[in-house]
UniProtKB/TrEMBL annotation:
Any Pfam family the entry gives: TOBE_2
Keyword rRNA processing: no
Every ABC transporter domain range: 4-234
Organism name: Muricoccus nepalensis
The UniProt record lists the keyword Lipid metabolism: no
InterPro entries: AAA+_ATPase (IPR003593), ABC_SmlMolc_Importer (IPR050093), ABC_transporter-like_ATP-bd (IPR003439), ABC_transporter-like_CS (IPR017871), Mo/tungstate-bd_C_term_dom (IPR008995), P-loop_NTPase (IPR027417), Transp-assoc_OB_typ2 (IPR013611)
Family: Belongs to the ABC transporter superfamily.
GO molecular function terms noted in the UniProt entry: ABC-type transporter activity; ATP binding; ATP hydrolysis activity
GO annotations of cellular component type: ATP-binding cassette (ABC) transporter complex
Domain of life where this protein originates: Bacteria
SUPFAM superfamilies in the cross-refs: MOP-like, P-loop containing nucleoside triphosphate hydrolases
Keyword terms, alphabetized: ATP-binding, Nucleotide-binding, Transport
Full protein name: ABC transporter ATP-binding protein
């Protein structure tokens, strides 16, 4: 069994469902990310694990123990808040030692563990500063040390990098991941930033409107998305509605027939998912597709094309100066092609789940 287990965990606020029956196991030493758009229920899920929000249904188990009704301080969790929530009038060392004091750890042990936690996050020498005398990145590391120092069974991170600038975010992301792996911390992290989730976590949980859509590694989600929502949320994806007409032939809603993976039996509405980098584009004198726009992005170029009534985004390495593709203009005819196996058929969303 996982070190952290969510068993049919749900939360309603009045009549509205914030989290609907989430089942999840986080094995010892793994980092799992809850990922999804704003309002999908990821923060509420994390807060139920931490003990700040009482679940309406289901259970939370930590190290095999049912803690569903236990208060936060009795749960063996360490949490890093988005805002850091440092005590402004306490020094760095006092902030870090606070949890140990609450647990009545003796002075000598407390000092040694505080020193060790500060060393782990590379804050030695700043013990006596107040939080306001630190940079954002340093404050973030105090929050990490404060959560680490109690040696929790489960480490909880709520959007821990969202208050850092882009450059620092990349560095801190790697630091947290290295620390988590070195110490073997069982970790649940909430983020809406897919790059953060993809680079840090062993497994990702994609949520939408209170439900888990898919759980998997970054590769699973990117290469084998379960549905159009996951395909569109993790990385970019062309999602074309239509139906499989015959094995390997997909008829898009616009009428064009597109090659696709063999797929299940023909018939019924489905969605064709095609990643922009899997489409080849070439100038053509009479190609069936038209270029609408091309955007130079340095190493890559993004093309917006239209095949009949179907818009397609294509991303390719920027062609060399001699390549005729370099000189195509909006309105020009182009040919588009792809390996049929790169065009995956996904189930169309049921009607009641669309829009919103
Ligand atoms: P964000 O990324 O914006 O923080 P989230 O995925 O973390 O979003 P939650 O904060 O978990 O989403 O919210 C899930 C749903 O529950 C939302 O519709 C939200 O409005 C609702 N909700 C959250 N907390 C409360 C509350 N205390 N009272 C009523 N509704 C709430």
């Amino acid at each position: 069994m996982g070190e952290l287990v969510l068993d049919a965990l749900g939360k309603r606020f009045g009549a509205s469902v914030a989290v609907e029956r989430v089942d999840l196991e986080v094995p010892q030493g793994q980092m799992v990310a809850l990922l999804g758009p704003s309002g999908c229920g990821k923060t509420t899920t994390l807060r139920m694990v931490a003990g700040f929000v009482p679940p309406s249904a289901g259970r939370v188990l930590i190290a095999g123990k049912d803690v569903t009704r236990a208060p936060p301080h009795a749960r063996d969790t360490g949490m890093v808040f988005q805002s850091y929530a440092l005590f402004p009038h306490m020094s760095v060392a006092e902030n870090v030692a606070f949890g140990l004091e609450m647990r009545r750890v003796g002075r000598a042990d407390r000092d040694a563990r505080t020193r060790e936690a500060l060393r782990l996050v590379r804050l030695e020498g700043l013990e006596d500063r107040l939080p306001r005398q630190l940079s954002g990145g340093q404050q973030q590391r105090v929050a990490l040390a404060r959560a680490l120092v109690v040696n929790p069974a489960v480490f909880l991170l709520d959007e821990p990098l969202s208050n850092l600038d882009a450059k620092l975010r990349g560095e801190v992301r790697m630091e947290i991941r290295a620390l988590q792996q070195r110490l073997g911390l069982t970790t649940l992290i909430v983020t809406h930033d897919q790059e953060e989730a993809l680079t840090m976590a062993d497994r990702l949980v994609v949520m939408e409107r209170g439900r888990v859509r898919q759980v998997g590694t970054a590769e699973d989600l990117y290469e084998r998305p379960a549905d159009p929502f996951v395909a569109g949320f993790v990385g970019r994806c062309n999602l074309l509605e239509g139906a499989l007409e015959a094995p390997g032939r997909f008829r898009a809603a616009g009428g064009e027939v597109l090659p696709c993976a063999a797929g299940p039996a023909p018939g019924g509405r489905s969605v064709l998912a095609l990643r922009p980098e899997h489409i080849r584009i070439a100038p053509s004198t009479d190609g069936p597709a038209r270029l609408r726009a091309a955007t130079y992005l340095g190493a890559q170029t993004e093309y917006h094309a239209e095949l009949g009534g179907t818009p397609l985004v294509v991303v390719r390495p920027t062609p060399g100066a001699e390549d005729p593709l370099r000189r195509i203009l909006p309105g020009d005819a182009v040919s588009l092609s792809w390996d049929p196996s790169a065009a995956r058929l996904l189930p169309a969303a049921p009607h009641d789940e669309r829009g919103a």
